[in-house]
UniProtKB/TrEMBL annotation:
<comment type="similarity">
    <text>Belongs to the ExbD/TolR family.</text>
</comment>
<keyword id="KW-0812">Transmembrane</keyword>
<dbReference type="InterPro" id="IPR003400">
    <property type="entry name" value="ExbD"/>
</dbReference>
<feature type="transmembrane region" description="Helical">
    <location>
        <begin position="20"/>
        <end position="43"/>
    </location>
</feature>
<keyword id="KW-1003">Cell membrane</keyword>
<dbReference type="GO" id="GO:0022857">
    <property type="term" value="F:transmembrane transporter activity"/>
</dbReference>
<dbReference type="GO" id="GO:0015031">
    <property type="term" value="P:protein transport"/>
</dbReference>
<dbReference type="Pfam" id="PF02472">
    <property type="entry name" value="ExbD"/>
</dbReference>
<keyword id="KW-0472">Membrane</keyword>
<protein>
    <submittedName>
        <fullName>Biopolymer transporter ExbD</fullName>
    </submittedName>
</protein>
<keyword id="KW-0813">Transport</keyword>
<keyword id="KW-1133">Transmembrane helix</keyword>
<keyword id="KW-0653">Protein transport</keyword>
<dbReference type="GO" id="GO:0005886">
    <property type="term" value="C:plasma membrane"/>
</dbReference>
Amino acid sequence: MLSQPNSGLIPRQRRRRQLISLTPLIDVVFILLIFFMLASSFLDWRSISLGTPAQATAASSSMEGALLIRVLADGGLDLSGERLDEAGVQARLASAVGRKPDQRVLVQPAAGVRMQRAVAILDLVTAAGIRDVSLIRDSRAGG
């Protein structure tokens, strides 16, 4: 007698593919987000405080005796009419602070000078110990 081909076997069921749940992945992303938000410090930003134009005009009477640093378009520096490099400017400013602790310095970037270069010079001035620093506009720039 002939037997049927599948008679002795258990019928094979199709396996259903498991669906991947995204809930644990989303939980991990939120936990990482909260961790980095709590671990980061947003209060340590460096800022440059600049006076409003009304304050600048009131302070213009005290510009007498101030040192003028012109930031030239070619990247050079001019301190009160003398062309110097950054180290020379910083040395002169340090000696000026030694003579007069409340020395005022005016920084005047020429037209075409990048803002980052002007900020670097402001940092150089404050590193020399000068606290009274003003950024002024080049009158020849126009506009």
